[in-house]
Amino acid sequence: xxxxxxxxxxxxxxxxxxxxxxxxxxxxxxxxxxxxxxxxxxxxxxxxxxxxx
Length: 53
Description:
Blueprint: H1 13-30, H2 40-50
């Protein structure tokens, strides 16, 4: 039987670092290149809408 961690127990910093580094390793091994789906003008237009008062 596989022991499962207590869901109410907070992970330690070392646990989190280990999981983050494992994620980065997996992503770097299996990852795909990022592809822009919008033009620079579309992105800037969206940002200007967000910053309006």
